[in-house]
Amino acid sequence: MTSGHMLLVVHSWRVDVQRVRWPQHTAPPLGTLAANCRWLAMELDWISASYPAAGDLAREVGALERQARAVTGDPVPQRKVVGQCIAVLDDQGTVCGADITHRAGESRLTCRSCHCVYEGQQDLLLLLHYQPQGVA
């Protein structure tokens, strides 16, 4: 695997996503690997919600990541439990309580159960403050 191969694979996904989302646009120029990755990252919400080949894209890009990590010897960052979700789910006051996990490099915390997002200092302080005894 070479960086050129990675560029071609990621660019082909960018071209296809753009073709499906904006069929009136012409294909983007090849650009750099970083630029193509950034563009796809900015479109992740639409890709996950609307792109028919989202699973194939995820599998192929995931395979590229595994190949690159094998070459560099860089292990996949592991998720770490940082607390329990404090989101109130209903008008009876039911608290989600699912584990909140974080991986190095992530800029926000998202509950994988109820999808509540904790972002910014105030959210994180509230999350810490309302943890059950002995959790945080």
Radius of gyration: 19 Å
What low-confidence regions span 5 or more consecutive residues with pLDDT below 50?
none
Portion in strands:
5-15%
Order of helices and strands: HHHHEEEEH
On the 0 to 100 scale, the average pLDDT is 91
Distance between the termini: 42 Å
Give the strand order of the largest sheet, numbering strands 1, 2, ... along the chain.
1-2
Beta-strand segment tally: 4
Structure annotation, total helices: 5
Structural features, described:
This protein has helices at residues 3-21, 33-42, 44-50, 54-72, 121-129, and strands at residues 80-84, 99-102, 109-110, 117-118. Helix 1 (3-21) runs parallel beside helix 2 and helix 1 runs antiparallel to helix 4. It is built from 5 helices and 4 strands; from the N terminus they run ααααββββα. The N and C termini lie far apart (42 Å).
